[in-house]
Amino acid sequence: MGEPPTAMAAGAQPLRIMLGFVVRQCARVVGHAPSPEELAAWANEQRDERGCYAIFGRAITADEARVILRHPSRLVTVRPGPRWAFAAAASTQAAVAGR
Question: What is the pTM of this model?
Answer without folding.
Answer: 0.72
